[in-house]
Structure formats: C-alpha cells, structure tokens
Specification:
The structure holds three protein chains of three kinds. Chain A has one domain: ABC transporter involved in vitamin B12 uptake, BtuC (Orthogonal Bundle). Chain A is 73% helix and 4% strand. Chain A contains twelve helices and four strands; from the N terminus they run αααααβββααααβααα. Chain A has helices spanning 2-37, 44-64, 67-70, 73-100, 108-134, 167-189, 191-201, 203-208, 213-239, 246-261, 266-290, 300-314; strands at residues 139-140, 148-151, 163-166, 241-242. A two-stranded antiparallel sheet of chain A has the order 1-4. In chain A, helix 1 packs antiparallel against helix 9, helix 2 (44-64) packs antiparallel against helix 4 and helix 10 (246-261) runs parallel beside helix 12. The longest helix of chain A is centred in the first third of the chain and has 36 residues, at 2-37. Chain A is globular and about 65 Å long. By secondary structure, chain B is α/β, with parallel strands linked by helices. Chain B folds into two domains: 33-156 and 292-365, Rossmann fold, CATH 3.40.50.2300; 159-285 and 378-395, Rossmann fold, CATH 3.40.50.2300. Chain B has helices at 2-22, 52-75, 91-103, 116-129, 142-145, 158-172, 186-201, 220-229, 240-252, 268-274, 294-307, 315-335, 343-352; strands spanning 37-45, 78-86, 107-112, 132-135, 151-153, 177-182, 205-211, 233-237, 259-261, 281-285, 356-357, 362-363, 375-381, 389-395. In chain B, helix 9 runs parallel beside helix 10 (268-274). Chain C is an all-alpha fold. Chain C folds into two domains: 1-80, no CATH class; 87-321, no CATH class. Chain C contains 17 helices and two strands. A two-stranded antiparallel sheet of chain C has the order 1-2. Classes of the chains: A mainly alpha, B alpha/beta, C mainly alpha. Chains in contact: A-B, A-C, B-C. Chain C: This is Branched-chain amino acid ABC transporter permease. Chain C: The chain crosses the membrane at residues 20-53, 59-76, 88-110, 116-139, 151-174, 180-199, 220-246, 280-299, 311-344. Chain C: InterPro entries: ABC_transp_permease, LivM-like.
Chain lengths: 328, 396, 433
C-alpha cells in the first residue's frame, strides 16, 4: 500500500501543483477583495471563467486568421493572456461599480446575495454567447503547448515512479509564479499597494489620510479580477476544454484555500491554494488504496469541504491569519 | 407609509402580470390550421445542460420524422405537430413537464427521455395518463422492469450493453486488467456496474473502480492511480463531457492502452474535446452506424440539409422512435375508422408493433416494452473524426 | 383620481365586491377555458389581492382557505390540465414550506444558510429508504418496504431527522459568523449531497447514484394517494401547520430572540439571550419544515436521487426568501409561489410558445435564447435588482408595534398581540388624506 502511494507521489505532486497554482491565484482574488471589503465576492469564480472564455475567443480568432502558425506559441500566449486579463480586470471593476458600490453600507447579507446574483448572471451570459456562436457551450481550444516531458523521478529514488507532464504545465507554473511574485511586490512595495493595505485596515482613517477609497477599491477589483482572468487562460491552456460552469466549484475550492491560509492574507492564500490542490489530487489518487476500496476518489470533494469546516471551527483565523478581536 | 404600500402592490402586480402575459397566447386550441384536428407528439430530452448535444439530437430526429410524415397525416385530416420539452436532465422538471404533457389532450405520445433517472419518475405520470412513451436512449433496467404498460424503448438495456462491451474487451481486445471509471450518475454507474460484473465473470481482473465528479475538468488524480496500476484497458461509464477529458488526460499520462466507453461517448463532442487522443478509443453504442445502409445515408443527408448539423448517435433512434409512434397512431386511426384515437388505443398499438423497419434495425416490442431486435454496436475511433468506425454488431 | 383610490382603499364593501367579482370571473374562465394557464395564475393571484384587502384577519383566512382548498381545485378539475395545475400547486406548497423554514434561519435569525436543500434531501431519503425495498439491503430485520400508511408518521420522522441534522450542522457552525457561516453551510450542503450520491458502498444505504425507485405512495383509510390533486391537500395541510407555527413563533419569546441576535448579536447576548440555544432552535425548526416536505416530495415523485438536491436548489430557495422579503411570512410565501410558478410553468410555456412561433415561421429565435434555459439569468437578475432597489422584498417584513401604555396595563396577560395589518393601514391612510 505504502509502496503504491510513494510510487505515484511524483506524478501526484506535479498534478497537484498544476491545480494548486490555479487555486492559489484565484484564491488571491478572493482574499484581496475580502481583505478590503469584507465581502465574499462569489462572482470571482465566474470572472475566472470569463477569462478562460475570452482567452479561448482570442485564441480561436488568432488561429482563424492564421496568426498562430506565423508566430511562436509563447508570443501568441502572451497576447492572449494580456487581452484576457485586461478584459476581466475591467469586468471586475464594472461589477464592483454597478453591483457592490451602491450596497457598501447595506447589510453584508444583501451584498453577498448580489454577488451570487452576479455569478449566476455571468454564467448564463457566457453560456448564451457560447451556445449562440458554437451551438454547444462546452468549448474546446486548440492546444498551444503540447510537448510531453518525461521527468525521471525514478532516478532520484528507486521507489518513485516517473512523472509525465505536458509543457503547458511549465507555462502555467512559471506564469503563475510570476504573477504571485509581482502581486506580492505590488502590494508590499508600491504606493498603491500601501494604500490598499491602509484601506483594508481602516477605511475611514485611510480616507482621512487623503486616500481615495473608491479608487483603491476599484484598483483592487481590477488587479484581483485581472489575475483571475489570467488564471482562466492558464486553465484553458492546461485542460483545453471549458464550460460556463467551471468557475463555481473551482471558486468555492479557491475560497476554501483562501480561508485555509487565513483570509485577507495574500501569502496565506498562495500556500492554501497549493495545499488544497495537492490534497485533492492526493485524495483522488490514493483514497481507495488507503481505505481498501471503502471510499473512492468520488469522496475527494468531501475531503476539501471537511478541511474547510475543520479549519473554520478550530482555527477560524486560518493557518497564517491573525485572530481578530471583535470591536464592540 | 401609504405610498410604500402602493408601490409594493404595483410591484407585485407588475411582476405577476408580466408572468401571466408571457404565456397568454401559449396554449392553442385543439383545432389547427385549416380546421384539421391536431395531433401533437411531445419530445422530452435535455436541451440545456451537460448532455444537451445528445438531447438535441433526439429532438431533431423526431422533428425530421414528423416533417416526413406530415403529409400522410394531412391526407387523413390530421395536423401533425411537435412539442419539444426540455427536461434539463432533472427528474423534478421531467415530472412537471410530464404533467403538462399529460394535460394537453392533443398529445398522443412522448419521445424521450435521454436519462434513465428522469425516465423512471416521469413514466409514472405517463402511465396515469395512459400516454405512450418511447425512449430512444434510456438504458437502465428499471425503466421497463417496473412493468408499466406505456413504457417502451428502442435501445438496448444496460444489462445487455455492459456485458456486450465486457465480452468485446475481454475476448476480442484480450484485456486482463481493467480499470473502471464512472461518473456517479444513474446512467454512468448503471453501465459501469453492468460492465464490471460481466467482465469479472469472464475472468478479467478489475484493478480499480473509481468515481469522478461531473462538471470537473481535472481527472489527473484518478488517472494517475490508473496509470500506476498498469491496466490493459480503461472503461469509462459516463458521457462525453467528462469522457473526452479523461481520454485526453490519460493519453497525456502516456496511457496508450485502449479506452472503452458506453453510448454516452457516442457523440461528435467526444472527438471535439479529446482531439487526436481519441484514437484507439472503443465504444459500445445502442445506435448503429447509419452510413452503412442505404436508408441511413438518405437519412444523414436529409438531416444535414434540414438542420445544418451532422447526425449524432441518437438522431437515428429519435427518428425511429418517432416513426414507431407515428405508425402506431396511424394504425390506431385506421382502427377507429379514421377518427382521432384515444391515448389508450395508441399505447396499445405501440406495444403491438412487432416488425417496424427502422433505419438500421428492426423494432418490435416484447411484453415489457423492450425492443426485441435491439442490438449493441462496437465502434472504434481510428482517427479524430466522428462517427467512429463500426467494428461489430451484437444482437441478443 | 388619487381621491378615488383613497376612497376605494377605505371602502370595505367595494373592495370585497370587486374581489368577489374578480374571483368569480377568473374561476369561471378557468372552468370554461379548460386549459388556460392565465386563468389559473389569475385565480392564484386572488390570494395576493386578498392579502391586501381591508378585512379582518379571520375573515381573510376563511376566504383564503375557501379559495385554496375548494375553489381552485374545483375550477381546475373541470379542465384537462387538472393534474398539471395541481402538480404545480403542490410544488408551490412544498417550496413555500421550505422557504418559510429558511426564512426562520435567514430572515429571523440572520444566519445565512447556503446548504438548506440538504435538509430537504434528508427528509426525502428518510422516507425513500424505508418506503422502498432499499432498507432491506442494509437492515436485516423488519419487513420493507413499509406500507403507505407509514407515510403520515414519516412526515414527523422526516422532520425530526432533519432537525437533528440541523442541530448537527448548527453545533460546529456556531463558532463562525456571517460570510464564514455561508461558506460552511454551503460546504455542508455539498457534503450531504455527495455522501447520498456515494453511499452505495461500503454499505448500500442510499443506492448511490442509481437513486431509489418505486417508493410506496401514501395511503389513508385504504385510499392510495397517487395523484397530484391528492398530494395537493397533503402539501396544503402541512403548509398550513407550518404557517401557523411560524406566525406563532415570530412574535413569541424565541422569535423576538432571533430577531434580536440578527440585529445585534452582542447586544442580544447582553440582554440575556442564550446564543447557542437560540441559534440551534432556528436551525432545527427551519430544517424540520424542510425535512417534512422532503418526505412529501419523495412520496410524490416515487423516486429520489441526489440530482434533485444541488446547490442551485439551495440558491433557489434563498431567492424565494429574498424576493418575497426576508423575515416577512406573507412575503416569503409569495416569493416561493412566484419563483416556483415562474420556473415550472411560465418559462416552459413561454419556451413552447416561442417554439411554436418558430415552427410556424412567424419569428426566428435562436435555441440558445429559449427562456427555459434562462433560469440562472433570470434568478441572477432578480437577485441583483432586488438587492439594489428593493432589498426588503416584495412584501417587506413589518415590525410589530407595541403600544407602551397598553403593555403597561396588561403585563400579566399574554404578551402575544395580533399583528394588525389593517390597523396600521387605517392609521396611515387617515393621516395622509
């Protein structure tokens, strides 16, 4: 039993890492918005999905005009990811302006419900457009990076099996890491980042320090959504097939990751995302081996949700968060 | 205070009237164009959701059959119409639609459903209304095993399709170690279970039996598990949305072994999703390759001309099921001296059909409503193109 | 014009007369037109009109009951669409009770629950397992399926089991608040659904994704209840009980405690409200309504599987509560009715109508636009618009007004005061003239 788990471990780590970075970047979107507005932006998963669809559209247009064959794949990829993240960034800003800003002083419950509404709306609009254009809302994109890479992990330790992955995995990993590092720099080292942290800490005091709170919130939404949209493109590159409903469950899992890391904490969200991705992959690959077939891979989602509930109950501030004392 | 109340009253009234006005003209009377009596045929299949491609094919097949026979019915003084319902693959919606269908007395028969899980509760309603139902696609054993008088199907049962696939996998493909994946839906589990049990009996070793979640895109966990166990064949019970991805991700993991699936994979979307990886994929289908017979080629051309789409697996079965139903209605009309027959007469006439020549195979119902001539076909994808190449036809 | 309206809103007789004419016309047209969805909906709409009439509460109840229990079934039974109407009406009843249950949790106690459908599932599976041959697959004693007579006990059992699940969920959830609570309940709802969908091994309890078929229909005095028109009365009876309980609870001690912790938990706690007990009761009572209706649902469908209990369903119930007005009992009933009818009848009808136009070549609407597929779009739009412009819903909740002097006088008497809608109307109407 143990031999089997060790043997699959390299492959599980590679796959878990792929899924994990996707979760991590999406989780950051949740955590940024939550940190600043204390709102679970349920629509963030749908922004991720919209990014994937916008990316696919651009990709399909590029390939139909014959652009793809004339330039290296990596250049086409950069164009796609930039367009998609700009578009979703503005989409996120627009959503905030229309649906969240008028409700900033309303009870939290109401804003949360609006967020669910936005998420439904986006799902159906994308479904509608995709169905109108292609007759089927499950859309497949041509793959840009298709080389298979064989990682001889068995050379390190004889018990290990080999890991196999596509070159798209490397692209996903590198781009995600670049985004994470850039974001970390942006939040911790720039003026806007400082303003963001100030608004997150205390909105009123920040506005007294001549920070334009509305603008900062807009920028937060832009950055978070652009990251989400870019992740959507990464997802599309990696899995090749998307539908309008990919955002919802993925969004919930990414939120789980954000909570696991301590909501509002950007580095926590990264770690949380990687952890959830890895755990999920591990559960899918090994649950039935571990339980001798009593529970199979179909229970992996329970695993993710159970972790969420356990964390919230025993360590509500998350792994890296600070406990907040309620102000009375 | 007062104005608020008025506003709330107006708001509710506006909402309610908006709803009402929406369906004001939705119900036509029972007399159609030119004073002819209207006969309606309802289809119920998922037109939205994950299996919309298959559901749409059933609807279009039925539509083609109806437009083919419209003239024959017009001669007898009837106006034939199609009413498509969307069951969204949701049992609750299916039952609610079934009630509506039952209440529209001009509907004399139902073609549908795609999913066994929807067929089972909905057919109870048809039974109460004595309304004949012919399913082109519901393969679960429970559909006909409950012994309802109105329930019929033209496709093969799970306990025929699964074992047929297992027989092919073990005896023809010589698979010794089989890894089974299923999608945890009524359809996928039923088929995968039937396959697993039959394959076990034939002496194959089932080295894994795992479930996945419908709607997800990453199945690498399960596939890694499969890869590490080094199977000779992977069997997938489920539909194309997940099946295509599993095929693709398995090939990415270097699993170049044959992958086998059921009729849920028999769709152009499988090829679209899996791309080149679809080579060396086998599938069992209850619908045969229509292009092999002359009548089928004509059907494919007519379908393409009318809808601008290629045929899907269930297009021909939707067409045949409707054809059977229309033939039954016709004979019931004749029995009733050219007058509109009752629903009961129609459902009896449907069950009485013994040798209807469909596009590919014959249709004749036994006393449970299963098609005596139902066959299972084995297909193989040699290249990334749909339809796949037919390998074998297995009859009972 | 305004004066006329004011005059009309004051005149009881004129209102009553107009109302009777309205009901008579709609029910007659339902009888005569045989198959008019419009007439059916207009007749249902009369209940709402009745709510706005200036009559005393008792008279309203009696008239309302007459319409719902006698007039609607009678006029519908004359047409062919009888069972179809009654099926929709039964589902309206089921969803009303569920929405009222959620209203206790969300509207009264302010605990956002995104996994509410789980309790419905618990109720449905409780009856489904024991009223079919399923139970004999894991229980080796007793004789299954239980007969249809057990249905009536199972309504209670379903409610109790769901309440237990509600408390089980409540205990860990008490430690989290607000948004966290929403996400935990969402997780809980998904866990329940996944477990039900997978519990065919190691022990076959729910038959996994194959679902449980051939559930015994209820029986009473030897009569088998199998038609929607019969289930309608079952659902109606339970709904009435639920409405009674909810209206009694709303103004009781526990009801006021719920609202107090909703508005300010810390202040409520300081006033001596036991937080744990109050929240758990809200979960338990809300869940039990849902569980009871789950039993009815399983018996009506004769088939349960996990696909009926998805996250979309939880959100649908939430939309009902929000649309009608959080915390407002009549509002929630209206919301549930509107959403259910919209979903099951209107969208399908409009789609069919569009399709007919398509086939007749009048207009050409792409298939993707079919309203039946637009459910999410419509819900999303409703949620946003209502949150933005009408956050209190169609019929906003009213806080009961207490007369301080009256209270002082009658401290020894019962604290319960009838919520007098008409009184307050009178006062405000008079002042504005």
């Amino acid at each position: 039993m143990l031999a089997h788990i060790i043997q699959t471990l390299p492959q599980v780590i590679v796959d878990g890492l792929t899924l994990g970075v996707v979760y991590a970047v999406v989780a950051i979107g949740y955590t940024m918005v939550y940190g600043i507005l204390e709102l679970i932006n349920f629509a963030h998963g749908e922004i991720f999905m919209s990014g994937a669809f916008i990316g696919t559209t651009v990709l399909l247009i590029l390939s139909s005009v014959g652009f793809l064959s004339s330039v290296p794949a990596i250049l086409a990829f950069i164009i796609i990811i930039v367009i998609a993240s700009l578009a979703t960034g503005f989409l996120g800003m627009g959503i905030e302006r229309v649906a969240y800003r008028p409700l900033r002083s309303a009870p939290k419950l109401i804003t949360l419900i609006t967020a669910i509404g936005v998420s439904f709306l986006l799902q159906d609009i994308v479904r509608f457009i995709a169905e109108l254009k292609t007759g089927n809302y499950i859309v497949s994109a041509p793959s840009l990076f298709n080389d298979k890479i064989h990682l001889k992990t068995s050379a390190i330790l004889p018990q290990f099996g080999d890991a196999l992955f596509k070159s798209s995995f490397l692209v996903v990993l590198i781009v995600a890491i670049i985004m994470l590092v850039a974001l970390d720099f942006f939040v911790n080292r720039t003026k806007w980042g400082m303003a963001m942290r100030a608004v997150a800490q205390d909105r009123e005091t920040a506005s007294l320090m001549s920070i334009n709170v509305n603008k900062v919130i807009s920028v937060t939404f832009f950055v978070g959504s652009a990251l989400g949209g870019a992740t959507g493109v990464l997802f599309m590159i990696q899995y090749g097939t998307i539908d309008p409903y990919i955002g919802f469950i993925l969004g919930i899992k990414a939120f789980t990751a954000a909570v696991l890391g301590g909501i509002g904490n950007i580095r926590g969200a990264m770690v949380g995302g990687l952890l959830i991705g890895f755990l999920e992959m591990f559960a899918a690959a090994n649950l039935s081996t571990l339980t001798h077939g009593a529970f199979g891979a179909e229970y992996k989602d329970i695993f993710a949700f159970a972790i969420l509930i356990a964390v919230l109950i025993f360590k509500p501030e998350g792994l890296f968060g600070k406990a907040v004392v309620e102000k009375v | 205070m007062k104005s608020k109340k008025v506003v709330s009253l107006i708001a509710t009234a506006a909402l309610a009237f908006g709803i009402i006005s929406g369906c004001s003209s939705s119900k036509g009377g029972s007399s159609g164009s030119g004073g002819k009596q209207v006969i309606k045929i309802a289809t119920q299949s998922p037109l939205s959701g994950g299996s919309a491609t298959l559901g749409e094919a059933i609807k279009l097949g039925a539509q083609l059959a109806i437009s083919d026979q419209k003239k024959a019915f017009a001669k007898k003084g009837f106006d034939l119409q199609l009413v498509p319902y969307d069951d969204q693959a949701d049992p609750k919606k299916g039952v609610s639609n079934a009630q509506q269908i039952g209440s529209d007395k001009s509907i004399l028969g139902v073609i549908g459903h795609l999913n066994s899980g929807v067929t089972i509760p909905s057919s109870e309603i048809y039974e109460k209304n004595q309304l004949a139902m012919i399913s082109p696609a519901a393969t679960a054993t429970d559909v006909t095993d409950r012994g309802l008088k109105v329930v019929n199907r033209v496709c093969a049962r799970d306990d025929f399709q699964g074992p047929a696939g297992a027989d092919f996998a073990v005896n023809t493909l010589k698979a010794k170690k089989i890894f089974v994946i299923q999608d945890k839906t009524a359809y996928g589990s039923g088929l995968a279970e039937a396959f697993r049990d039959a394959a076990k009996k034939l002496g194959a070793d089932i080295i894994g039996y795992e479930g996945i979640t419908v709607g997800e895109k990453d199945f690498n966990g399960v596939i890694s598990q499969a890869a590490s166990k080094k199977p000779d064949l992977i069997y997938f019970g489920g539909v194309y949305a997940e099946g295509g991805l599993i095929i693709k991700q398995a090939r990415d993991k270097g699993l170049d072994i044959p992958i086998m699936g059921g009729d849920g994979l028999d769709s152009s979307s499988t090829v679209q999703i899996a791309g080149d990886s679809v080579k060396n994929v086998y599938l069992t289908s209850v619908a045969g390759d229509v292009t092999k017979v002359a009548a089928g080629k004509k059907f494919v051309d007519a379908y393409k001309a009318k809808f601008g789409k290629g045929v899907e697996s269930y297009s021909s079965y939707g067409y045949d099921a409707t054809g059977v139903l229309l033939k039954a209605i016709m004979s019931a009309i004749d029995k009733n001296n050219g007058k509109l027959p009752t629903r009961e007469a129609v459902s009896q006439a449907v069950r009485a059909i013994q040798d209807y020549q469909g596009i590919i195979n014959k249709v004749g119902f036994d006393n449970k409503g299963d098609n005596k001539f139902a066959k299972v076909y084995i297909f193989k994808f040699d290249k990334a193109a749909y339809p796949a190449v037919q390998q074998k036809a297995i009859s009972k | 014009m305004r004066k006329l309206v004011d005059l009309f809103s004051q005149n009881k007789k004129a209102q009553l007369l107009l109302f009777i004419v309205y009901v008579a016309v709609t029910s007659l047209s339902l009888i005569l037109a045989q198959q008019s969805v419009v007439a059916f909906l207009l007749l249902l709409f009369s209940i709402l009109l009745l709510y706005f009439l200036k009559l005393n509460t008792k008279a309203k109840w009696i008239i309302g009951l007459l319409i719902v229990a006698v007039l609607i079934p009678f006029s519908a039974s004359q047409g062919q669409a009888y069972e179809s109407y009654m099926d929709v009406a039964t589902l309206v009843g089921i969803y009303c009770a569920m929405a009222l249950g959620l209203n206790i949790v969300v509207g009264f106690a302010g605990l956002l629950d995104l996994g509410f459908i789980a309790f419905f599932a618990v109720g449905a599976y409780t009856y489904g397992i024991f009223a079919s041959a399923q139970a004999s697959k894991f229980l080796h004693f007793g004789h299954f399926p239980l007969s249809g007579e057990s249905f009536w006990i199972f309504i209670l059992i379903g409610g109790i089991v769901a309440a237990i699940f509600g408390i089980l969920l409540g205990i860990p959830v008490l430690r989290v608040k607000g948004d966290y609570l929403a996400i935990v309940t969402l997780g809980f709802g998904e866990i329940i659904r996944i477990i039900f969908n997978n519990l065919d091994h190691p022990i076959n309890i729910t038959n996994g994704s194959m679902g449980i078929a051939s559930i015994a229909p209820p029986k009473i005095f030897g009569i088998v209840i199998a038609n929607a028109s019969q289930f309608y009365y079952v659902a109606l009876a339970i709904l009435l009980v639920v409405i009674y309980i909810v209206t009694r609870l709303e103004h009781s001690k526990i009801g006021r405690a719920w609202k107090a912790i909703r508005d300010n938990e810390i202040a409520g706690q300081a006033m001596g409200i036991p937080l744990v007990k109050t929240k758990l009761t809200a979960f338990a009572i809300g869940a039990s309504f849902s569980g009871m209706m789950g039993v009815v649902f399983a018996a009506k469908q004769t088939y349960v599987d996990a696909t009926s209990f998805t996250l979309l369903e939880s959100t649908t119930v939430l939309v009902m509560v929000l649309l009608g007005g959080m915390g407002s009992v009549p509002g929630v009933i209206l919301g549930a009715a509107v959403v259910t009818i919209l979903n099951l009848q209107v969208l399908t009808e409009v789609s069919n109508w569009l399709n007919q136009l398509n086939t007749n070549g009048v207009i050409s609407v792409p298939d993707a636009l079919s309203p039946a597929k637009m459910q999410r779009f419509i819900f999303g739009l409703l949620l946003i618009l209502f949150a933005l412009y009408r956050p209190k819903g169609l019929i906003p909740a009213k806080n009961q007004k207490y007369d301080a002097n009256k209270l002082k006088k009658s401290t020894t008497k019962s604290m319960y005061v009838e919520p007098q809608v008409s009184n307050d109307k009178k006062a405000s109407g008079g002042s504005e003239i």
